[in-house]
Amino acid sequence: MPDMHLTQEEEKIYDGELGWAYQISMRILVKLGDLFGADRLIPIESAHISGVSYKTIGDAPIDFLEAIADSGGRTKVSSTVNPSGFDLGYLEEMKIPQGVREKQQRIIDLYERMGVNPVLTCTPYYLERPRRGSHLAWAESSAVVYANSILGSWTNREGGPSALAAALIGKTPNYGVHQPENRKADILVKVEPKMENEMEFGALGIYLGKILGDKVPVFDGLPSRGETGLKQLGAALASSGMTSIFHRCERCDERLEKITVERNDVEKMIDDLSTASEPPNMVFIGCPHCSLSEVRAIAEIIKGRRVRDGVRLWVCTSRHVRAKAGNYVDIIEAAGGHVLCDTCAVVTWIREMGVEAMMTNSAKTAYYAPTLSRVNAILAPLRECINTACRS
Amino acid sequence: METHLRGRPIVSGRVRGVALVSRKPLSFLGGIDPETGTIMERDHDLKGQTVKGRILCFPHGHGSTVGSYVLYSLVKRGVGPKAIVNVTADPVVVVGAVIAGVPVVDKIDLEQIRSGDVVEVDGNSGIVKRCQTCT
Fold this sequence. Notes:
heterodimer, A: alpha/beta, Aconitase, domain 3, five-stranded parallel β-sheet, four-stranded parallel β-sheet, B: alpha/beta, Glucose Oxidase, domain 1, 18% helix
């Protein structure tokens, strides 16, 4: 029997009265709650589920997702999913084999049958911004840090299966950062240099993720505005480390344990993440997926220019943002770039497309590309990325 | 002779089988072939061995949460482990075992179990029995 308190209704689900899909979901949540010391389940506003791209997950989840969908499992709260292996509008550019295409489509169809909104993005907060103080069950680590740190919502770093279970039940066990005492900062990070652009924020995040462990950082010396930079910082912190929340301070508590980051630390990290020695034949912007203002910024830099022959320029965003960015998309595509949705360069087969080296403004992408895609990266700020992609 | 090891019950169920013991963490995604149950994780001390029908003992899981689905698929295809014994059960293994119905006990000193031992795992009481003459 569970240690945590269940309501009568929750107990019925636990005992299987609503069928297998809900019973197994409830058992997942209760088991995790018991393991991490939750006392009860709490309602969530939304769920965001990872485990979608066929490149990263392969065939493994299909059996389970099919069993859930077949036994009538349907989501109880607004639910979205992470990017998939391709954009249907760019199959030729992406060189996706037929068999892979069918399997990817099957995974997406299964989520859709469960009532998940098939918007395939890692930035669900650009679709629907969660309310400040609302509890969520989100599985994409960059979105988790963004939600906790910038939006003021509350979510643990869920895995694919636990986020799905929470979506079906509409609740999550209240452990981890659902409890106020676990959100408190316990290390003060003094950032000496001024972060000049979003790329530097990302490099700072990779550097700190490796040394923070499970400590909650509070930053002294970061600007309070500029969500793009903070998005890069959070995505990077979560990639190299365990972070799920960070804070910023103006009048900082000097009694906390303290570390100082110097310009040299950030510059060395940029060098370490830039593993490619050859010129890039891909330039990728959109990890995490671009906001409308990022797509606009790219359009403003690239307007009237032309992407070099032999270089791919990919701008990745959500279907939702792309639809709102009509004019900017036209400008980028007229220059020879591609604005893709539903996917990104990390979760598709770029090596198989002939990409040997990639330039990106995302430290998270540079961190993962050599292992997940066997492609070396060069980390550079947005303007330099676009200048490199273009002839003049 | 029997040895009783007292651990923490994580996922219920009681089974007996032959132990397969590793000193290294194991990633189900990428570390085990979901078709055959053969361990293929790079530099792993159990590389090339199968988890099929074994009491799989390892310190803890690591890697992607998709690993939970791999455990489910292994069991569904009849090539999964009979039970899992960990030093520290992690969410990936626990969730996978819940959906696959595989008993799990943790907080067990794996120095006390060798590959080939016949062991009985009780996921209700948290007791792992090692027995030379069990029938």
